[in-house]
Specification:
The chain is of the alpha/beta class. Helix content is about 35%, strand content about 15%. It has 20 helices and 23 strands. The model has no long low-confidence stretch (mean pLDDT about 95). It binds thiamine diphosphate. Thiamine diphosphate binds near residues 39, 40, 446, 447 and 479.
Amino acid sequence: MKKMGDMLLRRDAFSEIVMGNTAIVRAMVEAGTRVVSSYPGSPTPEIALAIQSIPKNDRPFYFEFSTNEKVAIELAYGAAVNGHLSTVFFKSVGLNVAADTFVQLSLMNIIGGLVVVLGDDPGANSSQNEQDNRHYAHMSYTPMLEPADPAEVYHFYREAARLSQTQGMPVILRLTTHVCHAKERVTFGAWNPVEPDDTPQFDPSNGPYIPLTTQAIEMKRTSMARLEQVRQRAEETALNRVVDNGNTARGVITMGLPFLSLMDELDGAAAKPDILKLAYVHPLPRKTIVRFLSSHREVKVLEELDDLLENQIKAMAFDLQLPVKIIGKTRPEDWIGEYTPDKVRHVLSATWPDMVQAAATLEAEDPAPHRPPQMCPGCGHRSAFHAIKQALAPTDITVADIGCHTLGFLPPYEMGQLLMCMGASTAMASGLRLFNTSRKVVAFMGDSTFFHAALPGIINAIFNRHPITLILMENGTTAMTGHQDHAASGRNFNEVTDKIPVRQVLEGLGVKHIAEVDTYQQAKLAELVTEMIAIDEFSVVIARHPCMLKFTREQRKNPTYQQKHVTIDQRVCERIHTCIETFGCPTFTRDTEGNVTINTDLCIGDGSCIQTCPTKAIAPAGKKGKGGDA
Ligand SMILES: Cc1ncc(C[n+]2csc(CCOP(=O)(O)OP(=O)(O)O)c2C)c(N)n1
């Protein structure tokens, strides 16, 4: 890590093989970025890992993980109107959380500059949907750039920062999963650090900063005019690319990852189309596009997810009555998934079958079997679900939230029958309880989510007296996105800090029924849940156990660490298979005769399974089971 930190602060120009998520941090350093904020979410958390590789005192900018995306963007905005070049980054759906603030930003005069980095997720690799955030650029009059690879991430960030500073507008840098995680050799510039002038520059006369009624309309006029100036920049930028294959019959207009996949697929194609690859996806460089349309008979618009580019380009051609055939998306699947080379071949073959060979079917080409995600060995959530299931009637309703505990919806637990977005479980559960006296309603939630977006739903349940039970799965970290600290961890990104204890927050809100238990105490947990769901008022069970993946990773740093595991006494085991079929820990495997063995590479010896075995055949390694063992 130190090596990465050293690289990111090199003074000379150099080239290195890096991920998109690393390249952007060097760009921040070179651009003189002063404030960066975020809330974790794939595909962006590695940006924070790269930042972390720079020792705190050497970091040329302030960084924090904020409580949620809305807070993160507000913090970055505050810093930017005080004169600091600022950046906020988060995942695709994070923009929904930040939207209430974000949609106003282009109305303001952001003197320091503000780059909003989005990690969109075509293919929903790690998100609850694959929303296309280009729509937000349109609805908020905000310029948006989209790089295709790590080198472009570096250059486009620099462009976005410059543009934001000169126009005083926020600028979105839209990354996608492939672009964040791809690696390539990037040539970076030199870095000549200049002593930052941190004099607070906020001055209301630099505004406008108050978007109220009629003033908001005037501000909108200004932001639309500024967007037209940006369009001029979009025409002139050297970041647009034209690939001239001398083909006046066929052309492709594209952007981002689809461009790279297209280049891949055309390698060896008979007659290659000309290509126009756009850097700015909003506002579009109208003249550049019209020139390209005017010099080709057929133009294919190749874009991932929605048909924004296509519709705008068709409108341009229509307005000017251009004699060009524009081919956009033709089949429903063209709107879905990542535009990998296979996918692009599939899409192109429907347009120009003579140019590229159709892929058989996309699925048939994928040789890897699908592996459902699952909880780690020793995960406290597994013990919790195993226990809670025993306390609930089959007709009771369980509402999931977002996090590792979401995986409880999978067999064998099947806990969590509805899921929406971070923090939504309590209020959805409250709705499910209305006109419902016969089926108990239980909501689940992680501790990072509790602080992120759950408090209004919880307050609502207290205030409007919804008699549901919330199970707060407290593991001390934001586990699913890579163990980032949160308000109850006792650390922020930069230092040790006071914990904000969830129990005291709940008590402060007036929750009368709160129980706490370690999830490995499965019988006790089941008992407490039975008790709490019987109360006709809002109740909370704090089901606590540290994230065991984080815990064992920390333990492994100790050179004397030895991985423990459990064993099965084959003489005692009656092949009932509770460990596999009900508890479901992936360390257990069953052979064709029904014998159960332990995968000692996976097992961490936590022993949470021991209590689940009806014949007591499981024991810690080195200790005897009922019938004796190693
Ligand atoms: C609005 C939004 N921001 C970020 C994410 C990414 N994300 C998925 S799960 C998760 C963390 C959940 O942490 P916690 O609630 O503590 O549950 P755990 O994974 O630790 O069980 C985050 C941040 C998201 N899905 N939606």
